[in-house]
Task: inverse folding
């Protein structure tokens, strides 16, 4: 999962950025509204965390532009304390959720998971596929009830494939969701991760569609 963080407060931004990376997300961080618009136009984000008070272009303008373009990117806005009006205007402008500063990072994490779940059309916190269960909150995977050790990037790939069961995802789409701008991308990393996932979860789970990408078939 790849997230865009838009926050001009260096200290707060750094805290959120570090926390989300530790939670296994690929995170790009920009500090003004123009940069946010440019990022959203070029990268396939799964969610945006958007501060409203930003230099150059306000968060509300960024939100307007995103919604105006028809993107259904989930947006969680960050608002300053005591500005009830910001929350109302933000939600009316198409934000999906909000948090008031200062906030708890664990709560932010839980709200992000809830939004991603809703985006994937799921209510249940666990993703199940046959005898495989993936828990986005606990970052754990079980097969037939037994815990399988899945490191963060393998987890991210599995999460995306299960969330998109029945759809082919290209290697580059998986790469884009796995790495932020700052990361070095190893050209055959996706293949290696898939290889490991197959060894742990069964060779038949992830199918290769030659020249196109990878698919997990819809569960029966
Ligand atoms: Ca700000």
Result:
């Amino acid at each position: 999962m790849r997230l865009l963080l838009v926050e001009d407060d260096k200290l707060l931004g750094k805290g959120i950025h570090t926390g989300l990376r530790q939670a296994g997300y690929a995170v790009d961080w920009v500090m003004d509204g123009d940069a946010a618009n440019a990022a959203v136009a070029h990268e396939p984000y799964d969610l945006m965390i958007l501060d409203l008070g930003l230099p150059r272009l306000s968060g509300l303008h960024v939100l307007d532009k995103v919604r105006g373009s028809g993107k259904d990117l989930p947006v969680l806005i960050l608002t300053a304390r005591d500005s009830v009006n910001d929350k109302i205007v933000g939600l009316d402008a198409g934000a999906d959720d909000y948090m008031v500063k200062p906030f708890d990072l664990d709560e932010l994490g839980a709200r992000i998971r809830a939004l991603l779940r809703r985006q994937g059309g799921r209510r249940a916190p666990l993703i199940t596929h046959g005898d495989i269960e993936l828990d986005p909150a606990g970052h754990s995977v079980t097969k037939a009830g037994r815990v399988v050790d899945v490191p963060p990037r393998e987890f991210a790939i599995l999460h995306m494939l299960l969330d998109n069961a029945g759809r082919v995802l290209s290697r580059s789409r998986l790469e884009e969701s796995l790495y932020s701008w700052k990361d070095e991308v190893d050209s055959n990393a996706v293949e290696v991760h898939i290889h490991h996932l197959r060894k742990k979860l069964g060779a038949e789970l992830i199918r290769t569609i030659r020249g196109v990408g990878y698919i997990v078939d819809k569960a029966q």
Q: What stands out?
A: The helical segments are 10-22, 33-42, 59-68, 84-92, 105-119, 152-163, 171-178, 189-201. The first strand starts at residue 2 and ends at 6.
